[in-house]
TrEMBL record:
Native species: Alicyclobacillus hesperidum
Amino-acid positions noted as binding a divalent metal cation in the UniProt annotation, renumbered to this chain: H65, D104, H233, E237
GO molecular function: metal ion binding
Domain of life: Bacteria
Family of the protein in this entry: Belongs to the GTP cyclohydrolase I type 2/NIF3 family.
UniProt keyword Metal-binding present: yes
Record-level GO cellular component terms: cytoplasm
Protein's recorded name: GTP cyclohydrolase 1 type 2 homolog
Assigned keywords, A-Z: Metal-binding
InterPro entries in the cross-refs: DUF34/NIF3 (IPR002678), DUF34/NIF3_sf (IPR036069)
Keyword Metal-binding among record annotations: yes
Short name of one Pfam family: DUF34_NIF3
Amino acid sequence: MTTVRDIVHHLEFLMPWSNGECETVDQLVFGGLEDLVHGVAVTFIASYEVLQEAVQQGANLIISHEGLFYQHMGGLDALNQDPVCSEKLEYIVKNNLAVYRLHDRPHRTRPDWIVQGMAKRLGWRDMMGDGYRTFFDAPIVQLPPVSLGQLINQIKKSFCLSQVRVVGHSALNCRRVGLLPGYRGGGAAAIPYLRQADLDVIIVGEGPEWETAEYVRDAVAMGHAKAMVVIGHQQSEEAGMEMIADSLRDLVAPIPVRFIPLYPVFRVL
């Protein structure tokens, strides 16, 4: 008999970060810690479609990296009159689902599980050296010389993307690469990393378009060998959650643990 509390303890074992260090969004959002678990679904974000698939697969505990209701800090206080939020909440309650938010623990454990998943998807886990010293895990990947154009093709193939967004020249010779999954592509995190770690290119999930992208645009115009590749928040973090699902599966057998990927949120028309 496995409970939600048991699964949470396994997650804490895999990712030994003390959440007493600072405020965290990691918590059981719905359900009870003593609820029995029949199946686990791990995902980047518990979208309505993911919830439906989890129910179809017999999973009653969903582990979601991002929040359910379109705000990082969560809560329904400002959205409790919204029909989309209400219908999603109704579905969770109707199907007796437990939902656990797992965001900070994988990021704050060293090494960062989300960064490691991104590197694994690219085949770079063995190429990561000492990171740039900062409050987040910022590895430096040392590659054999490759052009930015070739690197972009590898990224698109690894993440099954038809296109990515790029600032920089395709002929740029890339050796030192930085990984910034999720929302770390903003200027406060990315620009010092790019400069102080002497990176040729950073691969980011997302960030304000008028910060790092404009810095790189100006750097390129000045003749500096810099580039930025934007692959999307979801695409940059899903692989880390899949890695967590794979590791959790070994600990909780015979409880089935499934990773549920999502289609890209945007269509390109």
